[in-house]
Amino acid sequence: MLLRRNSWNLLPALLGALVLSLTTSRVGSEREKHRGSQTYPIIKTNLPHFSYRSGEVRQITPTRNISSLLDNLLKGYDQKLRPSFGGEPTTVEIDIEVRSMGQISEMDMTYSMDCYFRQSWVDERLALSHLDEAFTLSLAVLDKLWMPDTFIYNGKQSYVHLITTPNKFIRLYRNGRILYSSRLTINANCPMNLNNFPMDTQRCPLKLGSSVAYTTRDVMYRWNEDRRIVIAPDLMLSQFDLIATPSGFENTTRRAGEFSTLLASFYLQRHMGNFLIQVYGPCMLLVVLSWVSFWLNREATSDRISLGITTVLTMTFLGLEARKDLPKVSYSTALDLFVWLSYGFIFATIIEFAFVHIFTKVGSGEVYLTEREDKEEEEEEEAKTVVACTVLSLGLRESNLIKSGPNGVGNLPRASPLPWRPALPPGSAAGSTSIPGPPWSSLSNLTQLCRRRSRQHLRHSCCSPTDAAVEQQQQQQEQQQQQEGGTSRLKVEQMNSVSHIDEVSRVLFPVSFLCINLVYWYTYLSYTR
Asked: Helix (H, G, I), strand (E, B), or coil: what is residue 504?
């Protein structure tokens, strides 16, 4: 009874919610119907695409049209057949822009360069007459196009740069001309003639053309007349100057037929600064240093020999060092000739000293005595003799050791000691016979010397003026004979005199070396020019 009463109470609320939902859905359907009936205008005008290039505004052809045109062109395109197949030969024009040149090796006789290698040819199958300008193609198109099989005849380990992407470029013109450019590093052979090294000029060739696939009936190679070989203005080499780059073309005949080839030459003139500093300058200084021996004493044997041997060894080291970076060729270079000339002059100074030593008239050895020193020694010995005689006579008189003989001449006992004895060197025995001293170190010699001096003194004191004049004249004659004939004193001085061979060599060697240098440099420099 209670449940039935509650259900009658909820019935009005349910009816109200149903009416509200029906009203809301009707309003939403009317709004959608009104929105669907409203229309907006559609703009069908194609907006043009423009580009700004070289100061002019040009309309860009839509990319979709270019892609469709290329697809249509390549549908019937056969990349295995060359352009104008069966007709005139295809002409391939080539030009090279050299950006830098790498190492030029005399050991391997090779050279390398970094360049932009450009090839251009006309393919009528790709002509697009309604295009206003050329456009660049993707590298993927290269695999679908015909390309000439160009290669370098004297190349070694050449390659295309691949960082960061393959350095290639292809452009298509409206008349069907294709420009294909790639960045290459070319390492090629360079036969060198080193007869004039280091004053030489080398010619490094570059030969390129078609392989065995296409003869002159199919492909002809020609240089681009507008460019040919272009050298970058900032190109610099460490050891060479690039002075000329002539080019040409020729046909090469082989077993498979006649092939078209292109030729280019790079003329490289070597710098001499490095060799002047490291080889030529030191060689000249060593030759001049060897001439110092002409001013040394002829008895200075060890000094002159050691100087000559030192310069010869140094010259040998320089000669070996100069050929370290050169190939082992069978002929001599200009640098080898100069080294051998310098070596010959240094060796000639040693031979010259041998002749000086042979023609030395008096003795040998390093004796450095002069006439003044000889006089001083004689005076010193004379003074010592006078003092010894005086001391001996006084000492004997005071000790009554002298006894008168029948002739009035005193006699000395054999056991009498000398009043003067030379000092013994340390460590020597008292009875040693090798004690240095004057010639009158023994008692008998001193006695005879004193008697001789006393007789001369008595004779000089008792002689007449006539006898004194005669004796003075005899002394003058003896001095003149000593000056003309030469005594031992003058002979000692003559041993240290200057050799005539040395005097001639002081002039002959520098003059001859200067003349040979003038002929050497004039010959090679004029030949190089």
From this structure: helix
Backbone dihedral region for residue 228 (phi beyond 0: left; psi -120 to 50: alpha; all else: beta): left
User: What is the spatial distance between Cα 135 and Cα 430, in angstroms, rounded to a whole number?
Assistant: 119
Q: Write the pLDDT tens digit of every residue in 167-223.
A: 999 999 988 999 999 999 999 999 999 999 999 999 999 999 987 789 999 999 999
pLDDT in tens, 113-139: 999 999 999 999 888 777 777 888 888
* Contacts (Cβ under 8 Å, ≥6 apart) of 494: 361, 362, 486
Residue 268 neighbours by CB distance under 10 Å: 22
pLDDT, tens digit (0-9, with 9 covering 90-100), for 240-277? 999 999 999 999 988 888 999 999 999 999 999 999 99
C-alpha 91/C-alpha 303 separation (Å) is 78
Distances (CA, A) of 323 to 107, 111, 340: 11, 20, 13
Q: Give the β-pairing of 201-210 and 150-152.
A: antiparallel
| Beta-carbon count within 10 A of 44 CB | 5
Q: Which two tokens mark 437?
A: 């001293």
**183 three-class SS:** strand
Q: Of 113, 114, 151, 115, nearest to 261 (Cα)? A: 151
First to last CA, the chain: 138
Bridge partners (DSSP) listed for residue 493: none
Please name which of 285, 319, 293, 269 lies closest in space to residue 528, comparing C-alpha atoms: 269
pTM, rounded to two decimals: 0.65
Torsion, Cα of 297, 300, 306, 309 (10° steps): 60
For β-strands 257-270 and 150-152, DSSP reports them as: unpaired
Task: Report the DSSP pairing between strands 168-172 and 247-254.
Answer: unpaired
Residue ranges in 269-402 assigned as alpha helix (H): 273-275, 281-290, 301-322, 334-358, 371-399
Task: Decide: 216 and 89 in contact? Cβ < 8 Å.
Answer: yes
Peptide bond into 90 cis (omega under 30): no
Which amino acid appears at position 291 of this protein?
A: W
Distance, CA of 293 to CA of 348 (rounded, Å): 12
DSSP 18-85: HHHHHHHHHHHHHHHHHHHT-------PPPP-EEEETTEEEEPPPHHHHHHHHHHHTTS--TTSPTTT
- CA proximity to 517, closest of 323, 294, 280: 280
CB 472 within 8 Å of CB 453: no
Local structure of residue 200 (DSSP, 8 states): -
